[in-house]
Amino acid sequence: MVSEGDLLHRVETGTERRRSWWLEMVASTNQLAGEYVKSHSGIVKDVMTRDVISVTEQTTVADIAILLETNRIKRVPVLHGDRLVGVVSRANLVRALAMTINERPSGAEADDRAIRDRPLAELKAQKWAEISPANITVRDGIVHLWSSYCSDQEKRALVVAAESIPGVRRVEDHMRLVAAYLV
């Protein structure tokens, strides 16, 4: 499959990947050669993504959202057996979310919202914590943390804040380390 991500770093547009000299020193020659082929070749087999992530028609919308986020992709093909039957994009997920905005939460959904509000309130009171409401989701008592963190202590504190909330069944960590920049 060829996606816009496969075409982002192309010689024709002057956007081929440029590494700093020290990163180039530690990169393998095989990796550098592969990147050269991908940015310079005009043949689909050299540019395309080979290991395509896909879903089935039975995959839940929530699972697709997690898949897109954790793999940093914008679309995922939907397969029925080996046959392509559709594509789900981030825009499709936004539309699905927009359709549920005015629905009243009931039962487990109401409990999930209550669970979500408690760590948000706790973390907003902490000077070290920078977390957005969009970075905590809860489904069936399972807390998903999507934020960035600067240190292992900060990451552990975010998990502990979520784990300590009554009703939380477990915490799924989808967080990413923010690279520290040297001055």
Describe this structure in words.
The protein folds into 3 domains: 1-51, no CATH class; 52-103, CBS-domain (Roll); 108-177, Histidine-containing Protein, Chain: A (2-Layer Sandwich), CATH 3.30.1340.30. It has helices at 21-26, 29-40, 44-47, 61-71, 90-100, 108-124, 152-163; strands spanning 55-56, 75-80, 83-89, 136-139, 142-145, 148-149, 170-173, 176-177. The longest helix has 17 residues, at 108-124. It is of the alpha/beta class. It is flat. The protein starts with 20 loop residues before the first helix and ends in a 6-residue tail after the last strand. A hairpin with a 2-residue loop joins strand 4 and strand 5 (142-145). The strands form 3 sheets. The protein has a 3-stranded mixed sheet. It has a 3-stranded mixed sheet with strand order 4-5-7. Helices cover 40% and strands 17% of the residues. It contains 7 helices and 8 strands; from the N terminus they run H-H-H-E-H-E-E-H-H-E-E-E-H-E-E.
SSE map:
Elements: H1 21-26, H2 29-40, H3 44-47, E1 55-56, H4 61-71, E2 75-80, E3 83-89, H5 90-100, H6 108-124, E4 136-139, E5 142-145, E6 148-149, H7 152-163, E7 170-173, E8 176-177
Parallel strand pairs: 1-2, 5-7, 6-8
Antiparallel strand pairs: 2-3, 4-5
